[in-house]
Amino acid sequence: MKKLLCLLGWLAALHAQALQVTDDRGVTVTLAQAPQRVVTLLPSLTETVCELGQCQRLVGVDRYSNYPAEVRRLPQVGGGIDPNIEAIVALRPDVVLAAISSRGIGRLEALGLKVVALEPKTAADIQRVLGKIGQVLDVPDAQRIWRAIDAGVSATAQSLPPAARQVRVYFEASRGPYAAGQSSFIGELLTRLGAGNIIARELGPFPKINPEYVVRANPDVIMISERNSADLALRPGWAGIRAIREKRLCVFTAEQADVLVRPGPRMAEAARLMAQCLISASR
Predict the structure, then answer these.
(1) I need a surface site. Which of 11, 116, 148, 206 has the fewest CB within 10 A?
(2) What is the CATH number of the domain that holds 132?
(3) Is the per-residue pLDDT at 220 higher than 80?
């Protein structure tokens, strides 16, 4: 009887240590305990793990993860669309954090690895993902990070002068061109800062657009990374766009662009970069 009671006690303790999280696929992932070896396949997920104070648990990251600086020393395991399955398996992770769109999730799970798939696209997604990763890593009150982010965005919005508001913006998120729509976290930031977005909400978070769409919309300001800005005036009809004609362009460095386009814990910093652009363009 004593042995049975001990066994039941051990099983109860084991069950109490187990963690369960339902990811953005609707899949419930069960972990025996908080994972100590983590691989991430999306830069924003890497940054979230570190923002939660758990960078030391990372054993591998995707090739685009470059912040904070210590993650640059970690083994790289490909990207979301081309993960190196063998390299990931060799790292013996307790869990792999990936985007829903990451390829290879099925293969990783077939090989016995635990995968939590998360897809942050909006501010609400960023808040939810913080909570999910906090749950996976067993970090209490992960939402404190979100409260700090939200407070930072609000402070930036309140500091903007009236002249910097109501400016119509085109934000080019990546080559294609792919724009940041009103329903994306970038579009939501623009709204909180009082700026307009020329991309219609019904086009989705990050639509691929016809360049003529921008010509017709005639934005007051263009926000773009230096990687994509070289040929702006050469695009058909773009030389006549108000933002280009009046040189109201905000060209962000590669490092700044990473802050702006990653839906993660540096969202308040992204708001400050946008605000600086709007202030400069309104002068």
Answers:
(1) 11
(2) 3.40.50.1980
(3) yes
